[in-house]
UniProtKB/TrEMBL annotation:
<dbReference type="InterPro" id="IPR011197">
    <property type="entry name" value="UCP012318"/>
</dbReference>
<dbReference type="InterPro" id="IPR007402">
    <property type="entry name" value="DUF455"/>
</dbReference>
<dbReference type="Pfam" id="PF04305">
    <property type="entry name" value="DUF455"/>
</dbReference>
<dbReference type="InterPro" id="IPR009078">
    <property type="entry name" value="Ferritin-like_SF"/>
</dbReference>
<protein>
    <submittedName>
        <fullName>DUF455 family protein</fullName>
    </submittedName>
</protein>
Amino acid sequence: MKVSEYAKHLLLAGSLEDKLLPPSRQWEEETEFTSIRMEAPGRSPKFQFSDKKVKIPRLEHLNLQSNRGLSLHHFANHELMAIELFAWALLAFPDAPRSVRNGFLKTIEEEQTHLKLYLNRMRDFGIDFGDIPLNYIFWKQLGQFKTLESFSAVMSISFEGANLDYAQIYAQVFSYFGDHLTSDIMITIFEDEVKHVKRGLRAFERSIPENGNHWDHYLSLIQFPFTPRRAKGYLYLPETRSLAGMNSAFIQSLGDYQDEYTGRVNLESVKKFGLGERILRKNRLDS
């Protein structure tokens, strides 16, 4: 199988089983290098996108198993969209460096692992994938993906970067409520997301102009109404960005960024969890 054939399979397949097909260890040589930009993924009726908004449960309500299941369903949807969009990128940017394409394949494989972890744990809480309307926030950014670098800025630095915060937040809150199994899943995902952001940075940094800086280059690659607020959680954990190898000035600029959405989350209600005081890890990463 060629990489392009595999990417098409992931995008056009309707079932979860097909979207969870792992990458091969050996690939046939590509002969066509025409960019293909699909407008939407193939999905079975149960997994179609919906415009209905479903709010994720508040952190203080995760003492209830049903709310943990709802939260994991939300995260599983993100994993599935990531699988699809990294496959999309393999087709859209056929001339990307081999190292970048191999990184996309590794990321797909890890996102598939994450999705399976979420699916299995959700079922423990009585929720199956597709029981709740599925948003398409990642796919809504398709117009942003004009270049490999803009794709990396949105998907890796922004969405996966924000998940460095969210995976830590939820790992710590699940642990607070005594759900160490789910907390352990979130830590596993956190450490993989560190690697994903590192891969995205390599694609992003290769296009920084001479004498340019990371922050200005990042801003040049994203388009309003998408803003840097998408690149961090409502609680920003800069140490996680250092683990991913982000430039220190970029980390500071991202932390300083504010817009009209800043401060909308009532952080007073979650202070009891001690969030941000430490970073949970399994020591699978270099210090």
